[in-house]
């Protein structure tokens, strides 16, 4: 893959930021090259096969049955140095972070991100990506890793936008970005495994001291 161009030279990053400013969300159909998407999907499947994906939490101390009634995905956080494909994704998202900061002055400090695998039938009920006890998450970004997703297989991300519903199928290389505290959304059940990389740009937390 050619080296990433500088943020200011990358029209797709500017388009995302323009969308965020104008309406609070953005959708890009082909955000990354197919070979990087396939490497990320293989990395997610490798982790799943090794039993590294864990049931995702929804808060603190939630009973397992309550959790599964709200979300049924399994996740693993990614860290720099995990794998070359993950590092390349983190690099691109750091360019996006800098572009957002330059244009929108959100003061985003970092990007946290996990693989997510929804087995057939799993869903995530309507929610906001902002915790009551932690308001550092400002911008959500979901990259889908599913080759050859067919209409009728379900698994859409459903966003609730000013009284209107907007569905995004989880097709390979699609990216959705939205303001974490403003856009309620849910994940609809699918008839096949649904893989993604889900992440959040965060600002600095309030220091209690
Ligand atoms: C989440 C989430 C959306 C998706 O993990 O908080 O809403 O499409 N994911 O996977
Ligand atoms: Mn969410």
From TrEMBL:
SMART domains: P4Hc
Highest taxon, organism lineage: Bacteria
GO biological process: cellular response to hypoxia
Gene3D superfamilies in alphabetical order: q2cbj1_9rhob like domain
Cofactor(s) the record lists: L-ascorbate
Keywords: Dioxygenase, Iron, Metal-binding, Oxidoreductase, Vitamin C
GO molecular function, one term: peptidyl-proline dioxygenase activity
Domain Fe2OG dioxygenase span(s) in chain numbering: 109-203
Protein name, UniProt field: 2OG-Fe(II) oxygenase
